[in-house]
Design goal:
This protein has about 130 residues and is mainly alpha-helical. The chain has one domain: Response regulator (Rossmann fold). It is about 45% helix and about 5% strand. It is built from 7 helices and 2 strands. Strands 1-2 form a two-stranded parallel sheet. The protein is globular. The termini are close together.
Length: about 130
Amino acid sequence: MLHLLRERGITSVTLDSAGTSAYHVGEPADARSQRVANQRGIHLPSRARQFTHADFQRFDWILAMDVSNLQNILAMARTEEERSKVHLFRDFEPGTPTGLSVPDPYYERNFDVVLDICENGCIGLLQSLGL
C-alpha cells in the first residue's frame, strides 16, 4: 500500500501492520516475502507487532487479512463505531467474491500470488476511497 500511495503522491496517510497474535513481534517481514516484493520494486519496512485495542482510536480503517483475524479483531471491539472500522481486506479486491481470506504464504509457498492479491486489494481500496 505504501508504494501505491507514494506513486499517487499521497503522504498524509498513516499505515501500520499488526497481527492478532504475538508470534513474530519485532521481526521484519519474512525473507521470502521481502524477496518477492523487492523483485517488484516494493520495500516492506514494517516490523511485526500485535494489534491492540488502542488501534481502534488510532485508525479509521482496520483491515483483516483473513476471517480468523477478522473475528479476533471484532471480538476486541467495544462499540459499534469500532466494529464499523473493521473490514475483510479481500472484500476490496476487484472481481472477487466477498468473504475471502488472503491465503497464508508460509504454508502454501505462494508468495507471488499473495503479493498479487495484496496489490489488487490495495488498488481496490484506494479506488473505493477515491484515491
